[in-house]
Specification:
mainly beta; Jelly Rolls; 16-stranded mixed β-sheet; 16-stranded parallel β-sheet
Length: 530
């Protein structure tokens, strides 16, 4: 909901129409904006004694009524010539779409707003910003400790831009919050901090925002960090880009933290990517995101996420309860082995993949890389959905544990049954399933309680075998001429069987035709590590 317009006669409100702005989409309204800005600067007052705060206090709301305002001069909304640190400025429209600012500088390029370490605690609300040239940028903010705390509320950003927010300096430029904002069109970077920025740049929060651009990076940080995305949608519908670039191999503590929760992702072509991350620590978390709506628009092999270790530890990376498409790549270098990595996928569905091996790329970033530096990637309660293999493919594993310098893994126990919750029998004699890559079967227990059925059939048999041309029987329970199925069985087979080929990973639990009754109390338990 748009904020109410300031009341007539409010001494702290400046109405653009009262300064001669036409708002008709044709006239150049630059001077009215500059006059409003000059008034806001002049009305900033010093803190009264005994306050110890040396900052000035702002006292102005610049109100822009409904209309379309053309601005042909750069820095007409905030200007770099103002250098007095001032707390408080409100730039208020009548509503996104109702109040539209067309930035069309006579010479393409430059910024509509340029904060030279002066304004802090700024609210910009209920406006649409539009640019007609890819060299134009919305805001440049330079800070050595002043510029910070910007709230963007219910704003829309349309047209073509170079940068929406370009943050520079050595300190602050922090606490940027966006509430129900929308980006459409194209840009090079939405929020950008280059390597000359500062790790003092922190706390960027987005609430129910939608970045729906033909191209452009949403967040590109080479310094600074601590980012939170809640809800909304991220869409590339044109030539793409990377939604999140979290770069730089040297950061101070407290900056390398990223959370994206409850967000829809649309990669509508092969050039769109979710994340590229080279952070040497910290934490990156995706919680309950869904990228499935665009999975038919690009091949399953296209990379959607890239994480790199530059001879350092990766951040703690977690995807939790997510629906993912494309492949994820983890790259390591020669000395990456000297640090432990921590990567977890939990409760995730991989919509284009039937197997871990088609989803995950773990690659050497140089020709001399020690394989012990490859991260162990932990999959917990995950599942695949795509692919052509009709078998049940198990994802629960610690991928890469056997080659890492320290490869944590654990024993897992898998219960195998028919669709009716019972072991195979003569009418449904076989269950096929696939263990994860690198699995080692360490034991199989076949159990059938006595008197669970009444069948007096003898010569019954159950077995677990591989699916290769000359199958290996890993475990077997069978009757003889004296033992009826009703007598039950409890067979525990210890093993050390590496599933080092795809055929050895594809296992079959089967019964013979003498098994004519079934029991839900029966069990086939397969223990494996990997």
């Amino acid at each position: 909901m748009a904020t109410a317009a300031p009341q007539p006669g409010d001494p702290n409100a400046i109405n653009l129409k009262s300064l001669g702005a036409q708002g008709n989409g044709a006239a150049d309204d630059s001077q009215a904006f500059l006059d409003a800005l000059s008034a806001a600067e002049k009305q900033a007052r010093r803190n009264a004694a005994p306050s110890s705060d040396s900052n000035r206090l702002g006292s102005v709301t610049i109100y822009i009524p409904a209309g379309t305002y053309v601005i042909r001069k750069p820095e007409a909304l905030i200007r770099s010539s103002y250098v007095n640190r001032t707390v408080g400025l409100s730039i208020q429209g009548a509503g996104a779409g109702l109040t539209q600012i067309l930035f069309q500088p006579s010479v393409p390029g430059g910024y509509l707003m340029a904060n030279n370490d002066a304004w802090l605690n700024v609210t910009i609300a209920d406006l649409t910003f539009d640019s007609n040239n890819a060299n134009n940028s919305l805001m440049d903010s330079y800070s050595t400790g002043g510029a910070q705390k910007y709230n963007w509320e219910r704003c829309s950003f349309t047209g073509t831009w170079k940068y929406i927010l370009n943050l520079r300096g050595t300190n602050n430029n922090s606490e940027y919050s966006f509430y129900s904002c929308n980006w459409s069109g194209s840009c090079k970077k939405m929020l950008y901090v280059d390597a000359k920025g500062s790790d003092q740049f922190v706390n960027y929060n987005f609430f129910a925002c939608n970045f729906e651009m033909a191209e452009g990076d949403f967040i590109h940080l080479e310094k600074g960090g601590n980012v939170n995305i809640w809800g909304g949608s991220l869409i590339h519908y044109g030539s793409g880009g990377v939604f999140f670039r979290l770069l730089g191999d040297s950061h101070f503590y407290g900056t390398e933290r990223f959370l994206c929760a409850g967000t829809r992702i649309e990669h509508r072509n092969a050039n769109s990517q979710l994340i590229e991350c080279t952070w040497p620590g910290g934490a990156v978390t995706f919680l309950n995101i869904d990228a499935t709506s665009s999975m038919n628009l690009r091949p399953y092999t296209v990379q959607s996420a890239l994480f790199k270790s530059s001879n350092s530890e990766m951040p703690s990376i977690k995807f939790d309860n997510c629906r993912l498409i494309g492949s994820h790549t983890y790259s390591y270098l020669v000395n990456s082995w000297s640090k432990r990595h921590n990567v977890v996928y939990e409760n995730c569905t991989f919509e284009q993949h039937a197997d871990v091996k088609t989803f995950l790329n773990v690659v050497s970033g140089d020709k001399t890389a020690n394989i012990g530096g490859a991260p162990v990637v932990h999959f917990r309660n995950c599942r695949g959905a795509g692919g052509t293999n009709p078998s049940w493919n198990l994802w629960d594993c610690d991928y890469g544990y056997s080659t890492a310098v320290l490869g944590p893994t654990s024993r897992k126990v898998l219960s195998v049954k028919n669709a009716d919750g019972k072991l195979p029998y003569n009418r449904a004699p076989k269950v096929e399933f696939t263990l994860p890559p690198g699995a080692i079967v360490t034991g199989i227990r076949l159990y059938w309680p006595a008197k669970a059925v009444s069948s007096q059939n003898k010569a019954w048999a159950f077995s677990v075998r591989t699916s290769d041309a000359s199958p290996t029987v890993l475990a077997r329970a069978s009757g003889d001429n004296k033992t009826a199925l009703a007598s039950g069985f409890n067979v525990d087979t210890p093993l050390f069987f590496p599933c080092d080929t795809d055929a050895k990973r594809r296992l079959v639990l089967e019964s013979n035709d003498k098994v004519d009754q079934v029991s839900s109390a029966s069990l086939c338990l397969i223990e494996y590590i990997g």
